[in-house]
Amino acid sequence: MTLKVLHRQSTQTPQIGRPGLEQILRDPGESFVWRMDDYPCALGQWNYHPEFEIHLVRKSVGRVFVGDHIGHFEPGYLGVVGSNLPHNWVTDIKPGDVIQGRDIVVQFDADMLRSAAAVFPEMAEVEDFLSAAARGLQYYGTTATKAAAIIEAMGNQLGLKKLVLFFDLIGLLATSAERRTLSSEHFSPDLLPHSSAMVHTVVEYILQNLDETVSMSEAAGIVGMTAPTFCKFFKKNTGHNFRDYVRLLRVGHCCRLLAETELPVTQICYKVGYGNLSNFNRHFLMEKGVTPTRYRRLLKDRSGGGLE
User: Fold this and answer.
1) Better-scored residue on pLDDT, 307 or 92
2) Are 273 and 214 contacting, i.e. CB atoms less than 8 angstroms apart?
3) Cβ atoms within 10 A of the Cβ of 85, count?
């Protein structure tokens, strides 16, 4: 099978040498970074950094990867990623397409907040927030809506007014119960730039071939590893073995098709890379606890919020 190459790569050899450690440059006159990013952009890859990140998706839908968590996002998605926790938000787009202003990120040094809490006892709640965010958090409901409004407003302010909004945002996130933890407690990747770059390359290969045959031996070859070495490497850096990872992505893609299209389940089965309906239904039931048909019916019956 021929490797299809994603929009952020050339049409030649996959770029496995790109750094996974994102170097965050903060303006000397500011205590945190506020940045609006187009998609794709140079920073839009499987990466990590010492700073905490608050991530707002403003446009498009896609897949979110935080540690060993694989989920889905849509406009309004609000996540928080802890220090050195690998992450990425991927949207399927055509080569050459650009989604302008897809994301806003707010990045800050956790020690800055801890130092402030040592001076201002009212900030004691910040430590619990930082501890929880170490594994990644997703906010929903009213909290996500209010936080998005604050983040958007921050882009129009400077100096003290911008800082006040930052603390409003932290206060909201630190005290809200409308959140879920993303990555598992035992996830412990190799925090090496070349490891993150290789994971990024393999995940792009999987995503581009979900509707066809995804081969572990081919994935291993792309990053120059033997199959046994690759198995250990992939498990260490994603929290999943290769086969389970592919299954999770295929089931997730199926959920999107069930929610956003009227395609028959049998057609979706083949569209997400399954060779027979029996395996497809079994894997979907294993991950979601219901059949694809039942899942679609539940989506239509629910008045608010979708199923993941």
Assistant:
1) 92
2) yes
3) 23
- The one-letter amino acid at 49: H
pLDDT at 17: 34
Cα–Cα distance between 111 and 24 in angstroms, integer? 15
Q: Is the pLDDT of residue 11 over 50?
A: no
Q: Cα–Cα distance between 250 and 253 in angstroms, integer?
A: 5
Residue 65: is it exposed, middle or buried by C-beta count within 10 angstroms (0-12/13-18/19+)?
buried
Separation between Cα atoms, residue 217 and residue 3, nearest integer Å: 12
Residue type, 144: A
| Residue-by-residue DSSP string for 155-223 | TT--HHHHHHHHHHHHHHHHH---EEE-S-TT------HHHHHHHHHHHHHHHHTTTS---HHHHHHHT
Tokens of 139: 């906010």
Q: Which residue has the tokens 């995804």?
A: 214
Q: Is 199 left (phi over 0), alpha (psi -120 to 50) or beta?
A: alpha
Q: What is the pTM of this model?
A: 0.75
- The b-or-e profile of 207-245 (16+ CB within 10 A means b, else e) is bbbbeeebbbeebbebbebeeeebbebbeebbbbebeeb
